[in-house]
Amino acid sequence: MMKTPTRSQLQRGMQRYLAGDRPWPERARAVDWFIASKKGELFPLKYTYGLAVDQRPALYTTNQMKRRLKGLNLTFVSLKVSHSHDADFQKSGVSIAG
What we know:
Layout: H1 7-18, E1 33-36, E2 42-44, H2 45-53, H3 62-68, E3 75-78, H4 79-91
Antiparallel strand pairs: 1-2, 1-3
Helix pairs in contact: 1-2
């Protein structure tokens, strides 16, 4: 059964991640979604969630985890979405003068 972490559990998951705790093998696939901390640090969403609830991150989808974290008022960052918006902006031909 999928667990929902509290804010303090999620913070412990972030601390575990920073400390290098990797109880599950990480996949070679690039990480897309991150949780942004108040300090501006980015933590991989699925792995941090897994560390917070002590469950393998591969058991659930990113969207399932994001829905479970909805009430914690977190900022999620997608590198793919950001990169896509940057590319669209550059293609638009708009320039910004400094």
